[in-house]
Amino acid sequence: MKKVNIPKGTRDYSPDAMARRRYIFSTIEDVFRLYGYQPIETPAMENLDTLLGKYGEEGDKLLFKILNSGDFLSGVGDDQLHRGNIARLSTQISEKGLRYDLTVPFARYVVQHRNEINFPFKRYQIQPVWRADRPQKGRYREFYQCDADIIGSRSLLNEFELIEITDMVFERFGMNIDIRINNRKILAGIAEVIGERDRLTDITVALDKIDKIGTDKVNEELRSRGLSAEAVDKLQPIINLSGDHFRKLENLKNILSGSETGIQGVNEMIRLFEYLDNRDMKASVELDLTLARGLNYYTGAIIEVLSNDVEIGSVCGGGRYDDLTGIFGLEDVSGVGVSFGADRIYDVLHQLELFPEKVSTGTRILFVNFGREEEKYILTLLPAFRAAGIETEIYPDQAKLKKQMSYANAKSIPFVALVGENEIIKNILTIKDMETGMQKELTTQEAIRHILVANEG
Amino acid sequence: MKKVNIPKGTRDYSPDAMARRRYIFSTIEDVFRLYGYQPIETPAMENLDTLLGKYGEEGDKLLFKILNSGDFLSGVGDDQLHRGNIARLSTQISEKGLRYDLTVPFARYVVQHRNEINFPFKRYQIQPVWRADRPQKGRYREFYQCDADIIGSRSLLNEFELIEITDMVFERFGMNIDIRINNRKILAGIAEVIGERDRLTDITVALDKIDKIGTDKVNEELRSRGLSAEAVDKLQPIINLSGDHFRKLENLKNILSGSETGIQGVNEMIRLFEYLDNRDMKASVELDLTLARGLNYYTGAIIEVLSNDVEIGSVCGGGRYDDLTGIFGLEDVSGVGVSFGADRIYDVLHQLELFPEKVSTGTRILFVNFGREEEKYILTLLPAFRAAGIETEIYPDQAKLKKQMSYANAKSIPFVALVGENEIIKNILTIKDMETGMQKELTTQEAIRHILVANEG
Q1: What does the pLDDT read at residue B295?
Q2: A15-43+99-351 and A362-456 in the same fold
Q3: In chain B, domain spans
Q4: B interface mutation test: which of A47, A66, A327, A359 has the most B CBs within 10 A?
Q5: What is the mean pLDDT of residues B366-371?
Q6: If we measure between CA atoms, which residue out of A282, A303, A25 comes closest to residue A170?
Q7: Is A362-456 a domain of CATH 3.40.50.800?
Q8: CB spacing of B62 vs A40 below 8 angstroms
Q9: Which among A43, A47, A97, A95 is positioned nearest to A74, based on CA atoms?
Q10: At B359, is the pLDDT very low, low, confident or very high (cuts 50, 70, 90)?
Q11: Nearest residue on chain A to B405, alpha-carbon basis
Q12: Residue A120: is the preceding peptide bond cis (ω within 30°)?
């Protein structure tokens, strides 16, 4: 037999995995909806000029490009059809690409539909994205993102609400998490007051390692990244801030008094913590000045969620961006959003055995097929089971009983109905509970009730 | 502002369209589940050698190919890098393609996972497919298919069950439909007994037009397609068969007595109609000897569903294929399946206004945001609404009342809560019913009950 397989970094989802993934998506979705977020979907393919230049140089390389249909060389000049022209050639022979994330397509959607949209617009989107990354453990070329964003409002109530949503989602999953927040304006303010405005990235990359390598090594790294000794000195009071978040923020206000942006960031965080401290949440929310997150489009609050029990990186993250749609020419639309990492959440729930036992909603009862006459009789009974909402099967072939029972077993069907000559005469069903092995003789109505009750239990 | 748009033949789905599409998918899915079908999903990308050669020459051209990442010319020899080599070149620079339908990926899935699968395997799959067709009204380059198949069983009970499923799905939609069935073996038998075994396609293409152009014109076309006068003569008793389906099938049995395949097809249809006649269905099921359907892999029963009220082509179709996995080297796995056309169903439901009014499950109540103090008070009330499962929003900004009310209107939010100084003192909410314009003063618990009851009504 020929060897068949699927592209590297992609996956098939079999029924068991599907049931678990749906549990994850529907849990997240239910919470999004409770807060008034509405779903949209965008096409898998976007025009390449929508995608190119939005994810940095590295991102452009990771875009899957779609070869133009028909004579894809027709627009390529003879002088261009050579190896020296690879990058250029790729955009000459392909004008579409697969979606790389949900954020840029959402920005494109907002600009394109701006006249139909009712702002502030709360949308969520759960769809696959594709990246030509090197496949490795936990990193796929096709994976799902679950994003919620609200755009067209600068209110910090939105940041608060998204943190509440995050807390509710993970509470429903039964996962213990920490929520860390920071603000890009504070980071910019810090870079400003230590006189290294252009080294924001170097500073955040180094600060991010404090937990791992300690203050001394971080200072060393900062110097080796070109920060002046004076700047590193000035940074120390910030690194060594202590106390609760209000205390830290008050101190920070003094330290950043020379930076308007910095002060604005501090005030935003004070406001956000006022909201948070008035609300009893399951997760703890901590101010983390070392939190930067990679994406450059964040301009205000940054949010990151970590599992307390499994070391797997962030399971959810997000932030405020003041100019997302600016890349498409629509200025002054501020937004804030979070994105849940379905694959990592799956791994955590799996590892901690947190998936609910009844996550599968497969067949509840299988009728064994003993022969023509029995089959005919059974077919008159099935509609009542299905009308009661019970997933019901009859084995399609008159196979050996053992084969039919092992089919039920493999599919984890909890009840099997045995209907032979005897049952037909007595107008009853013999119902076998596959877990206990017990058999009961029941009327059709009794059997339906029996299964419905078992389903609730 | 730059003009942004999406690739030709693709669509964005806004919240209203999403709600309607979900209604369609979940209705179909609920019925699939009631019959024990389980969901799977496969990757958007398949290896090109999985897809090529499975849809005919025309189909190969309509595949969207994905340009290899990195230096896609590295495997192309200098002598091959020219325009004369387009088709070959396309498979040298791309090794993956987007899924063209759900059937071939399913066949690939079955072969790849054959050792984990519990046969007979009932699976359903609802995913988008992509075709580089010329976009036109009702034809898209990205569209969803909803397929249910059972494979690993030759029992005609499966055909019957899929017809039952079809009936139940369209009954739930409130759509009036006709189900037409035929059998490929009968068509082969007819071609055989009239001595034109190789002209099966010509015969079925012509027969398919009988309703439109009448018997005479069909006979003319058959002759022009190269059928002998004798063959056309022999075909007449078949074209003119009358009576109910059993009568037709009995007559056909005589006419096809010289063809083993034909007789087998007739017997299969007799058996299928025995099942159908014992079951009270909403739709009528008719034997239609002119029904052929395009796909060449059908080998037994063929099923087609037409709307009675809207002329739009078939809204569902399917059939039996004896050798689907044979293309991947796994022989002797017979299957039968149906595929629902979500886009056409959408159009019919839309045109006949059959979408349920409450198909949208958006926000149920919006709290107007009058100011800081009111906001703070309202935030203590919201958790109770959400805990009761009520989709609840507070307007994030302290905007003018008119703006907030028009937000509620545009989002079709049925209730608005007005909580000002007066309400805070009295510890009540003023709830405005947006449809009637009536206002009521209610406690939080009363308001929650009020909304829950309205939701059921």
Answers
A1: 61
A2: no
A3: 15-43+99-351, 362-456
A4: A66
A5: 96
A6: A282
A7: yes
A8: no
A9: A95
A10: low
A11: A118
A12: yes
